[in-house]
Amino acid sequence: MFVKIQAKWDSFTRFGPDRFGMEYVAVVEQYAMNLIQPTPEQQVHIRKTFNEDVNTRDRDLEAIKEWLRKEPHLPDTWDDCRIMTFLRGCNFSLEKTKRKLDMYFTMRAAIPEFFADRDITRPELQEILKLMRTVVMPGVTADGKRVTVAGATASDFETPDIANFMKIVLMIGDFRLKAEQVGVAGDIYVLDASVALLKHFLKVSPTIVKKFFVCIQEAYPVKVKEVHVINATPFVDFIIKWVSPFLKEKIRKRIHVHPDLDSLFKVVPKDMVPEEFGGTAGKVQGYMDMWIQALKDETAWFKEQESVKADESRRPGKPTSHEELFGLDGSFKQLTID
């Protein structure tokens, strides 16, 4: 199915509107959304997972919108579909949704290196796009989960600023807040560790890594169900130990390092994974092109959202400090590299 999607996209983008006219526009709009929604049968299962009641969810949505209007330090309004995604990610607990939304807008103010200058055509982001093979695949598994693959086009390259890679990942995350129209049962990640070289690791700041994982775990309505690592070396074991203090225990327990691809495809559908990762879902670049186009199309929204963030000067009580969010810089456990 995904190979057909990519082939059709390739045809339309190769020849453009001159050949296909308005049909080109319709197809670009359809595939730029990138994410195939779960079937009605899968949605029933997913709603049970979320504790979602179709009879009361609009009431819950209105309750969150009213809460936003009353919080002086938060935006007065935000679009309904993204708020609904937060409700689903918090199993329709109003209190959890409020905490996560508060943290989301707080992070947008606290980490400008992730949330400012989010124009995918900027040279520093284009540099990352030339190296990365990171895409959210369009379909869902039989039980309603979404698969994301992450790797690089090569391993031996000049190490770029990892904050820009993280920025792109969060841009995709913000896109998904709207594009996941009915929600998914969780996320599966397939990580190609062949890029994990010592030369890159030595240029990575633990501070930026901690900010990224705090942001992902505390500010986004993500349900990480499985993390699969392929092409691992003994050095990858060290990296996992190094990053583990930044991860919640339940996520640490969901990391699986595979000795080979046969092991991976016992638990992840092969037709949900691109060829470069050993699967049968076609070339990864086709999916990359769709995502890049989608992020380009949202350039105005990303610019507009730079001002949609928490204002700590108006927060009731004491403003949230950097130390409260991320701890003290330099307070990281040191590990010895053999």
UniProtKB/TrEMBL annotation:
Span of domain CRAL-TRIO: 125-285
GO CC list: membrane
CDD domains attached to this UniProt entry: SEC14
PROSITE patterns according to UniProt: CRAL_TRIO (PS50191)
Disordered: annotated segments: 306-325
Protein origin, superkingdom: Eukaryota
Transmembrane annotation, as ranges: none
One annotated GO molecular function: phosphatidylinositol bisphosphate binding
Record-given protein name: CRAL-TRIO domain-containing protein
Species of the source: Tenebrio molitor (Yellow mealworm beetle)
